[in-house]
TrEMBL record:
PANTHER family according to UniProt: DYNEIN AXONEMAL ASSEMBLY FACTOR 6, TWISTER
GO BP term (any one): flagellated sperm motility
Name of the protein: Protein PIH1D3 isoform X2
InterPro entries: DNAAF6 (IPR026697), PIH1D1/2/3_CS-like (IPR041442)
Amino acid sequence: MEGLGVSSVQQLQALSALLSTQQEDDDDDECENVSSYARLGPGHIGPPPKREKEVTSAYIKKNSKDIWSEEEVAEGSQYDDHSDPRPQPEYEIILKQNVGTEDLFLGLNGKDPSSMCCDAMLVKIKLPQTKAKEVALDVKEKFLDLRTPKYKLGLHLPYPTHSGGGKAQFFSEREELEVTLPIKHAEDFLIVQ
């Protein structure tokens, strides 16, 4: 055992020096107290990803004379006029479902009370001291623009709508405009053959 003591101490010191220099090289980029296994994650499994030349939208914008792309501009932003002193009227958005007895009692159509199963939006806008002929209404897919001599409303809608299929009705006794807009769902775009 004595023969192993001196040479093994020297061997352990040499091994310690070898490992500590290797560890110092690894820890230049990472934290010193983290083990090498803790630095590995799911991205380290398999071969490293190939680095191809990527074209980013910032690169495209920098080389073109456009300040922004059309996707970055919210629909209806052209109607935003911050210098217009007219107040915004009170409004309320109500989601509506067409529910029949087969939905209510049997659940055959798979509808639930969530907003994803709603068929239309009802926008109620209170317009005190306003007549129906004074109302100018413009509805886009995701934006409702209402103008009267006393009020203005630029409303970004929570869901895309079929703007051509909506209807509006003004109730003079309540001084309220009701706009019903059918909601455009993702499955509306599917073509069944």
